Amino acid sequence: MRRNSIYVTFIIAGAFAGERAVDYGVKKIWENNNVGKRYEDISVLGQRQSEE
């Protein structure tokens, strides 16, 4: 790498890709550890059961 612009571009692109990879990995770990505990996992929230 002889030019500074190529070096800076490589660093910025690498940081962006690394941030995306870490964010994706942490999100997957978080979702796997909290299965059934999240708001999205509750099928019916705040509704009364119908009397049949």
Element string (H = helix, E = strand): H
Q: Helicity, in percent?
A: 55-70%
Biggest beta sheet summary: none
Radius of gyration: 22 Å
Question: What is the subunit organization of this protein?
Answer: single chain
Question: Which residues form runs of ≥5 with pLDDT under 50?
Answer: none
Per DSSP E runs of 2 or more residues, the count of β-strands stands at 0
Structural class: mainly alpha
Percentage beta strand:
under 5%
Estimate the mean pLDDT confidence. 86
* Shape, principal axes of CA atoms: rod-shaped
- Compute the separation of the termini in Å: 75 Å
List the total number of helices: 1
Description:
With 52 residues, the protein is an all-alpha fold. The chain contains 1 helix and no strands. It is found in: Mitochondrion inner membrane.
List the helices and strands and how they pair.
Layout lengths: L3 H30 L19
Key phrases:
single chain, 52 residues, mainly alpha
Briefly summarize what is shown:
The chain is mostly helical. It is built from one helix and no strands. The model has no long low-confidence stretch (mean pLDDT 86).
